[in-house]
Amino acid sequence: MSQVSVINVSSYDEGSIYNAICGHLEMAGKARLPHPGARVLLKPNLLSGRKPETAVTTHWSIISALIRRLQELGISDIVVADSPGGLYTPEHFRSVCSAAGLRRPGIEEYLNNDFTFGSKQTQKGFSVRSFNLITPVLQADYIINLPKLKTHAMTTVSAGVKNLFGAIPGLQKPGMHRRFPELAGFVRMLCELAATISPGLTILDAVDSMEGNGPGGGTVKHTGLTLASSDVFALDTAACRFMGLDPGAVPHLIAASGMGLLPDEVKYVGDPFAACPEPFTLPDATKSTSFIDSVPKPFRGAASRVMDWLLRSYPSIDASKCVGCGRCAESCPQHIIKLRGGKASMPRRDCISCFCCQEMCPVHAISAKRCLKNF
Ligand code: SF4
Ligand code: SF4
Predict the structure, then answer these.
(1) 35 and 147 assigned to the same domain
(2) Are 262 and 294 found together in one domain?
(3) Whose CA is closest to 163, among 103, 262, 239?
(4) Shared-domain flag, residues 260 and 296
(5) Among 28, 211, 217, 327, who pairs with 364 as Cys (CB 3.0-4.6 Å)?
(6) How far does residue 4's CA lie from ligand 1's centre (Å)?
(7) Looking at residue 103, which CATH number applies to its domain?
(8) Does one domain contain both 307 and 243?
C-alpha cells in the first residue's frame, strides 16, 4: 500500500503554501525525508518560459516554501534544476526561470549552474539500458519531484511520471520521441525513467492546473489541491482520479501496471480526497491518438493503417498566428518542420504525433486535427 497526502489550498498565498508544504513533509514521515547533509534536488516542471499565471510551470511559491522548510530541517545543500524544452544551456534555463518567477531571493541562489549530463544504468529487463540525465539528477542523494498537474496532448496526463522526462538533457528529449514513436513504447520508457530516477518524494502543484490542449497551450483550471507521495505511481493514480479519469485507461499507468510498478492500494491521508467536481477537458489529440495501438498486432495490416491515418491526430499550424520563431522546428524529433516566408509548415508524412511542436509554440499557433472528426 502507498500513501498519498492531500492538502487543499485555495491560492498561491505564500503562508498557505508554506503550511501545505510543512503538512506534506510531516505526513510523509521523518524516515522518508532527506537527512541533514544530503544533496537535495528540487525538480519542478519548467517546460517553457511562461508566466506563473498560465499554469504551464510549477508555481514558484511551492519551490520557495520547500527550500525554506528544508533549511529549517537542517538541509542546505539544495539545487533547483530542470531541462526545459529546447536547448539545455544556462541562458535558456535562466530565461525560463525568469518568466516562471524563479529569479527571486530564496530561489535564485539555488538555481542549477551545471549544464553537463551523464549516464545512469537502468535495471535488468528494461527496454532502455541507460538514460542520459542532467548532472544534478545524477549527483543528488535525494530528489523531490515537483510536477504541475496538466493535460498532455500525447500522454493524456502530465503529473509526476511525465515531469521526470525533463531530466533528459535538451534536444535529447526529441531523440527519445524518435526512438519511441508509438505511444505504448513511449509511455513504457517514461515508466522506466521514473523507476530509474526514483524520486524520494513527489509534491504535485494542482492549485491551478491546466486542462484542454496541455501541456503548453491549455486553459487554466483552478483546482485548489496539492498532493504528495513517496510513490510517484501512486501519486499519478490519485491525480488521474482527481481529474475524473479512470487510471486503468491512462497510457502510462497501463504500462506501469504491466511492469508491476503500481501499488496494490492507495491510502489517502490529510484532507478528504474526492474527484474534481468538473472533470478535466482533455486535449483534442488524445481523444484517439493512435487507433493502431488498440489493434492486436497480427491484424495491423494495411486496413488498420488506413484507419490510423484517418483517426490519428496530427498538428496543424494557424499561419495567421505563427510568428516564425522556429521553436517548433527545433523541438521536432523528425526534423520535418520548415520555415518558409517566416511561417512554419510541416508535411503530415513522417509525423509521429508526439506534439513536441505544440508544447513549444509560444503563441498557440499549433492545434491538433484529425481527418475523421467526431469518431
Ligand atoms: S511535426 Fe510536431 S507532432 Fe509531428 S513529429 Fe514533429 S514535433 Fe512531433
Ligand atoms: S508555429 Fe509556433 S513555434 Fe512554430 S514557428 Fe510558428 S510561432 Fe514559432
Answers:
(1) yes
(2) no
(3) 239
(4) no
(5) 217
(6) 35
(7) 3.40.50.11440
(8) no
The CATH number of residue 318's host domain is: 3.30.70.20
Closest CA to 26 of 313, 228, 177: 228
Which of 327, 340, 356, 358, when mutated, tests ligand 2's pocket best, judged by the most ligand atoms within 8 Å of its CB? Answer: 327
Domain final residue pick, 209, 243, 270: 270
Inter-CA distances, 72 with 34, 61, 65, 179, 275, Å: 13, 17, 11, 44, 34
Answer yes or no: pTM beyond 0.85: yes
Gap between the Cα atoms of 101 and 58, Å rounded: 10
What the block records as the C-alpha cell of 48 is 517553457
* Structural domains of the chain, count: 2
Mean pLDDT computed over every residue of the chain? 93
pLDDT of residue 292: 52
Supply the residue whose CA is at minimum distance from atom 1 of ligand 1: 351
With beta carbons less than 8 A apart as the criterion, state whether 75 and 40 touch: yes
Query: What distance in Å separates the CA atoms of residue 374 and residue 274, rounded to the nearest whole number?
Result: 30
Q: 275 in a domain, yes or no?
A: no
**116-136 residue pLDDT tens:** 999 999 999 999 999 999 999
In a domain, 279, yes or no: no
List, for residues 51-64, the tens digit of each pLDDT value: 999 999 999 999 99
Alpha-carbon Rg for the chain, nearest whole angstrom, is 20
The CA distance from 147 to 167, in Å, is 12
Contact 181, 118 (CB under 8 A): no
Binding-site residues, ligand 1, Cβ < 6 A: 315, 332-334, 336-337, 346, 351-357
* Residue 150 belongs to domain spanning: 2-270
Cell numbers at 81, concatenated: 534544476
- CA of 294 from ligand 2 middle (Å) equals 32
List the grid coordinates of 217: 497551450
Q: Can you tell me the distance from the alpha carbon of 345 to that of 324, in angstroms, rounded to the nearest whole number?
A: 10
SS3 31: helix
Instruction: Write out the H or E segment, with its range, that includes residue 78.
Output: strand 78-80
Based on the fold, state whether residues 250 and 324 are members of the same structural domain: no
Q: What is the pLDDT of residues 270-308, one digit of tens each?
A: 999 999 999 999 987 664 444 555 556 566 566 556 666
Last residue of some domain: 223, 244, 270?
A: 270
The whole-angstrom separation of Cα 239 and Cα 226 is 10
